[in-house]
């Protein structure tokens, strides 16, 4: 489609929004992977919530 | 099961697991419809020409940056008044998302302003108050990172968030209270929208898409924050076991 004389401003706006959303999605996904890895490492050392719940009973 | 039962983080995580795929699906569909309407069905504006298409991302981003701060303010009340286990998690998780939407609103507004107003920036009340909102978001994110104890950080951030909420009516009514270059409200008005339906509908669909995107990202970020607090609590427990007597202030909210 034809975006006219101000196409550069329109494309830059949408490109920036797409980039910002991609950064946000990458942030939540990487953060999730980091936390899950940390929980897994703790579980391998025998430190887990399941054990704590068991101990408290 | 009552709504308040979801204050239990484990139940909340189970709910997120069920709801998230549906929200992501609706969000993708809403963006597909909104972008199609924005570029293929919406006409050019008689004054703005094709630059009106920037409005389909600028306006929803501007709405969402205020909505996100409203969510943080409500969460802050939950932290201070009810000490709701997920309230602080909600507020902390929303801040980076709100900052991103505010950044989008400012930059897309600037890119629209250059061809329409002849300038990227002007220190008028609307633009300046939104810039203050971005600074508030960044300040709150910094505050959360500077304190080790999430309970203390959450309380301090909640107070600062509620003080900053005074900026929300200033942003909304700045175009009415002061003589600004920014145009007055044209959608949310007492006498109804002043925009033609051909332009209004794509705008509303994009607003729905942005709102769904916010909820998707917010739920994902809240899930991460709950996991982070679990990791912290378990590490503190491990440290207290290896050094008896250093004891166990391990219980965290939303652990």
Give the secondary structure arrangement, pairings included:
The complex is a heterodimer of chains A (57) and B (255).
Chain A lengths: L6 H38 L4 H8 L1
Chain B lengths: L8 H33 L13 H28 L4 H31 L7 H22 L3 H15 L2 H11 L19 H46 L13
Characterize the structure shown:
- The complex is a heterodimer of chains A (about 55) and B (about 260).
- Chain A has a domain at about 35-55.
- Chain A is about 80% helix and about 0% strand.
- Chain A starts with 6 loop residues before the first helix and ends with a helix.
- Chain A is built from 2 helices and no strands.
- Chain B has helices at about 10-40, 55-80, 85-115, 125-145, 150-165, 165-175, 195-240.
- Chain B has one domain (about 10-175, about 195-240).
- The radius of gyration of chain B is 21 Å and the shape is globular.
- Helix content of chain B is about 75%, strand content about 0%.
- The chains are: A mainly alpha (about 55), B mainly alpha (about 260).
- Chain B: It is a multi-pass membrane protein.
- Chain B: Required for the export of heme to the periplasm for the biogenesis of c-type cytochromes.
- Chain B: This is Heme exporter protein C.
- Chain B: Its main location: membrane.
Strand coverage percent of chain B: under 5%
Q: CA-to-CA gap between the ends of chain A?
A: 67 Å
Judged by helices, strands and strand pairing, the structural class of chain A is: mainly alpha
* Order of H and E elements of chain A: HH
Radius of gyration of chain A: 23 Å
What characteristic shape of chain B results from the CA principal axes? globular
Q: Can you write the helix and strand succession of chain B as a string?
A: HHHHHHH
Q: Characterize the largest beta sheet of chain A: strand count, sense, and whether it forms a barrel.
A: none
Q: What portion of residues of chain A is helical? A: over 70%
Low-confidence stretches of chain B are 247-251
Largest two-chain interface:
A-B, 34 and 36 residues
Q: How is the quaternary structure best described?
A: heterodimer
Helical fraction of chain B: over 70%
Measure the end-to-end span of chain B: 21 Å
Discrete helix count of chain B: 7
Overall pLDDT confidence of chain A: 86
Low-confidence stretches of chain A: none
Which structural class is indicated by helix and strand composition of chain B?
mainly alpha
- What is the number of E strands of chain A? 0
Dominant shape of chain A? rod-shaped
Average pLDDT figure of chain B? 89
